[in-house]
Amino acid sequence: MTIKGFLVLLLFLIASTTDAQQPHPSGFPIGRLFTLISIDGQAVTERHATMTITLAGNGNPMAAGFGGCRGWYGQMGGLQQGKIKFEIVATTAPIAVQEPCGPDHHATEQKFIAALESATRWQLDADTLIVQGDGSAGILRMTTKGR
Question: What pTM does this model have?
Fold first, then answer.
């Protein structure tokens, strides 16, 4: 992990401890940890990706989590009721990944990140978050239930 990636992740974790479960005008559950359960209906059974959206010091939403092999973080370009936009998504440690992370895990992580980058809509159905875009990058289903 680079120093910059570590600092961004550290700042995110500090911010998320103070923002947990805060209401947001969009209705999105700020500070809640979501765990990936499927991409395009295909179950993810190991090395589950995660996502938490929290608020930066200026009140703007930001996101971070685990992609399945590496940490990731992103700036939000928008978070409104039913609409979501990730402007910048970056991963930590672009060369060294958490072991063991085989080709299948890496491919799942790439699909997850691509789906985030193309996301335009979100919907919360009880404990399940559905994130999807207008393109073919994938539909993400995530849960807040323990794994």
Answer: 0.80
